[in-house]
Write a structure and sequence with these properties.
Elements: E1 8-20, E2 32-42, E3 47-58, E4 61-74, H1 76-81, E5 83-84, E6 89-92, H2 94-116, E7 139-142
Antiparallel strand pairs: 1-4, 2-3, 3-4, 5-6, 6-7
């Protein structure tokens, strides 16, 4: 395995939060989208978690909230390749972490569609998002 390759599998998708809130929206209403992405690890099980949170807002009030978490099992050799024992850290390349974020955003897009299908909220879709704007550098985690 090359240093830049990270073997992984998608292990779990969780809907951490989902809500639709009734508000009066005209068809010409300016809708804004708030987005965040976060990462965490489970060192013992070699898991990276990626969470994305979206808020659709109109009139400064949220009317759709969705928070999705994907868990990825990392191959043992890859996990060990990215550990720095002296610094007690593990760091993964930004390109790989961006890839995990893209998968998680895609999962959120599917969950949003499934949960709003046949409702008036189904017209609100997650746009394509350039996650490299959010993952600007390698991501490091402290090890216990």
């Amino acid at each position: 395995m090359k240093k830049n390759e990270v073997g992984f599998i998608l292990r779990k998708i969780s809907t951490e939060q989902f809500a639709t809130i009734e508000i009066d929206l005209s068809e010409k209403e300016n809708v804004q989208l708030g987005f965040s992405v976060n990462f965490g690890i489970n060192e013992e099980n070699r898991i990276i978690a990626c969470s994305t949170r979206f808020e659709f807002l109109a009139k400064n009030s949220p009317f759709i909230l969705i928070h999705i978490k994907c868990e990825f099992d990392i191959e043992p050799k890859a996990w060990e390749n990215y550990k720095n024992i002296e610094l007690k850290k593990i760091s993964f390349p930004k390109g790989f972490m961006s890839h995990l974020a893209v998968i998680t955003v895609g999962a959120a897009r599917g969950v949003l569609h499934a949960k709003t299908e046949n409702t008036k909220f189904n017209q609100y879709l997650l746009p394509t998002i350039n996650v490299t704007d959010f993952v600007k550098e390698d991501i490091s985690f402290d090890l216990s």
